């Protein structure tokens, strides 16, 4: 069996990205006829038409949609392998990195991270944006350089992940609240009035599942989308918030925190990035810095 022409991968990547023979030809600086011949070769090699006529344009086949992400990653990896390595000059580096995280990360880890970046690379600026969902789109399209989050079903299969923080849920009430005194039992905890924290507006979550074996159920008074909102309400009322311990350390200042009186749900926060940034020396430096600071802040 003859080996396939690997040069066709680049052509296929551009064709699937552009969805047009004419635009792909312009991007690769080929004539339309040469691009048409390349598409014919790709069809023969893959055994699939890949792009088919629909009105005046072309639409991808199911096989083309299946290949698009894989082909793009292969081309990016090949470019990274062939790119000459450059010695990183942190002192002369001028760049803005965008980090996406839930509330609490900036308050707890941001000051040390910003200080270290300022010492090592004064021309680097960090931009923190709120993590409002678990999709990997912003890492794929390059609008976000690094993300801090929990790896889940919606995390893209190609996304790189490095476990960073092991966290557990704890209970939080205002100073002087009844739960700030005496032993807290599952029954006493569940009898309180609670805040549910869900970006999707869900009433029930892991804590409610943890209470089920005790035959108990929380009274959910309100639902909010962030830890900071939940703690702000808790600080000014008799409501109870249940939040990750390490992510909310500084947000809980002046409040009473206590271990949950049942096996507490745990989460692992990971550092996430797109594989096309693996070989980028500046990106690699920042990844190492974030991992070091989060590991040191235990």
Number of domains: 3
Query: What Rg, in angstroms, do the CA atoms define?
Result: 25 Å
CATH superfamily of the largest domain: Periplasmic binding protein-like II
**What is the structural class?**
alpha/beta
**Beta-strand percent range:** 15-25%
Average pLDDT, rounded to a whole number, is 89
The total count of helices amounts to 10
Give, in order, the helices and strands: HHHEEHEHEHEEHEHEHEEEH
- What's the total count of β strands? 11
Which architecture of the largest domain does the CATH hierarchy give at level 2? 3-Layer(aba) Sandwich
Question: If you consult CATH, what is the topology of the largest domain?
Answer: D-Maltodextrin-Binding Protein, domain 2
Tell me, what is the CATH class of the largest domain? Alpha Beta
Shape: elongated
Q: Indicate the low-confidence ranges by residue numbers.
A: none
In terms of topology, how is this protein built?
Blueprint: H1 7-18, H2 21-27, H3 32-46, E1 51-54, E2 57-60, H4 62-82, E3 95-101, H5 105-120, E4 124-130, H6 137-140, E5 146-149, E6 160-173, H7 186-191, E7 193-197, H8 206-211, E8 219-224, H9 227-235, E9 241-244, E10 256-259, E11 266-273, H10 281-296
Parallel strand pairs: 3-4, 3-5, 7-8
Antiparallel strand pairs: 1-2, 5-11, 6-9, 6-10, 6-11
Helix pairs in contact: 1-2, 1-3, 1-4, 2-3, 5-10
